[in-house]
Batch of 2 targets.
Target 1
Amino acid sequence: MAMGKENVRVLIPQEDLERRVAELAIEISRDYAGRLGGDALLCVGVLKGSVFFMADLLKRLTVPVQVDFFQTSSYGSGTTAGEVRIRKDVDLSIRGKDVLLIEDIVDTGHTVRTVLGLLRFRGARDVRLCSLLDKVERREVEVPIDYRGFEIENLFVVGYGLDFDERYRNLPYIGVLEAEPDPPSPS
Ligand code: IMP
């Protein structure tokens, strides 16, 4: 997708993100308190989009955590729609662990379905999903989201980790890219 000059319209302001992340952290800390049996909660992020959200969320958790990452790539067109490949695997052992998968956005659902399946296959004791955004209209495969930040419309969003062509990840808010109208042509 090529785009000329873009404007970013704020969809979810920074204050709303901060408030919701704090709420999610309270909920997650409460749910896992007492069920880890002295072990740490293994928080697995999906690179690269989840890193901003994950850093803010994990700083607020009150249970012990470990951190690891997957990186995936998807081949989303034509007959290979939904094919997801693991480009970078986790380093830590999954077996017997309570795992919290952390995503920036669930769109079609193929990425998290693949990763959740792999975590279960590797013998995790329990696997849950936390996603900042849920683009529910676009779903092709059903994935239960245990902790969800915001449901959003079918819009292409950037910021707070999410990119367009590797740009915009460092915006402190979630925005929607809009093409700037062409300048009036000289008469
Ligand atoms: P899914 O496999 O279709 O659910 O896609 C999930 C991945 O697609 C996310 O981790 C993002 O990297 C990317 N993605 C989906 N929607 C958007 C968006 O609106 N902006 C930026 N990236 C997106």
Target 2
Amino acid sequence: MALLLFIFPGCGKLGDQTTGLITGEAMVVSAHPLASAAGANMMKNGGNAVDAAIAVQFALAVVYPSAGNIGGGGFMVIRQSDGSLHSLDYREKAPMQAHRKMYQNKNGDVINDLSILGHLAAGVPGSVDGMVRAYEQFGTLPWRDLIQPAIDLAEKGFPLTEREASKLNDNRAEFISTNTVTPRFLLDERWAAGDLVYMKNLANTLKRIRDHGRSGFYEGETADLIISEMKRGNGIINHDDLRRYESKWREPVTANYRKLRIISMGPPSSGGIALIQLLKMIENYEVDTMDWKSENYVHLLVEAEKRVYADRAVWLGDADYFPVPVEQLLDDGYLHRRMADFSFNHAISSDSISEGNTQLEESVETTHFSIVDPWGNAASVTTTLNGSFGAKVVVGGAGFFLNNEMDDFSIKSGFPNMFGLVGSDANAIEPGKRMLSSMTPAIIEKNDSLYMVIGSPGGSRIITSVFQCLLNVTAFKMNMQESVSAPRFHHQWKPDRIYVEPGRIPEITKQHLVEMGHIFEETGSIGSVNAILMIPGKGMEGGADPRGDNTASGF
Ligand code: DON
């Protein structure tokens, strides 16, 4: 630990902190100290929040390879200091050869792990196109400067944190069985904190992106390496898929909740819609007069969550392919009616389903970063490979992991994905379609000014993590760090369980909730929230989640 503290000053035991880093001008909160530093440096050099976001995205692809990526996708929500709002969808797409039943055998049974592990699990990556598009619209520093920190980290080596070292060790056997050309750094037997990792192939790929922009990834040598990898591993992504990939600017979803305005990502993420639905459903209850640990508070949130995740399973998917009824889903009347049968006295049970192969203990391996720049522009970015290290396949010679985002589709109606989420037609696989996400990069305004930048990894638990952290601050007056550190709970309609972190709900309250019909399951960690809260007259406070190596950095 002493060595680590030396390597990453400021990376102490965040759980011990009650106040996050406070800075006057600018801040990045991300999953890794080196990525936060890369983003903060961009702003020190005169760059804005989007410049910093691009630098963080590329740096995370090196130092945080289990979720940071160039082989995956994500969403970026932006609020400019003039109040203008933007959201960028760089979610992966199904390859053109994908089809509805590609993960089922002749009898219609789902083939174990096919959508999770290996080449066929990968969607067409969107991150590089996304960064290029964000840069074209908002970037101010030279493009090459934004990627250079990532190249330097990959080429000159970077020290592993303890968590990252264990992740590499724990996944070694799967890396070896899934890869066609296993890179050296995945073969090494025992990584320890402080060990230096070098990623030469990744550095070269990043240089091609630095020198050729979009075509440094979707065409030429990198594209050839991806397609050769697909051929060796029986994957289906082809040159056309890569050439045709495009990220998209979309309308952010927005709504008022009490004195706040919520701004987040619309389809193909369910995150923004679900977060707003949750807030609207509890709006008529005086949450701030409830005790944070009380059964009434837990019960109210859980009952709202059941209804929201039930909607998600049926109504949400890629709006380019399925008519998602966004307006109805966000309609005040509809949402208040959905709570008409809510009672503080008893739980309404979700129909039980066979839970299949749920892997809710899959570690939190998406990643969120929040950024505010000296002008008051904000970027809220969640990006992912889906599972930890995605499909666990590194593109031979190119050095980066491919996502396993295809598992976010409903691979068979009613069959739970790796987060236990069920879906149907709205989220069925179609060529070129984007799989439904739960990512909830959000920006909150209060009195027309920037108030909070927030988001989390955690699959299905992202939405409820963001929801609770927001309420912790607004209803329970926690500061940002207390809010993200506080233990959480989660319900997603099916399976009918309240997942709860240790220490969140007192035993006696749990007993009462069980008597009301709730079922509990204790779980490791729920989400990993990185957020920034504006403090009028003072600057801003970072909330870096102690559930990971998350770090706030700024000035
Ligand atoms: O887009 C989604 O909702 C998922 N692919 C996110 C995955 C995730 O958060 C992984 N962490 N547990």
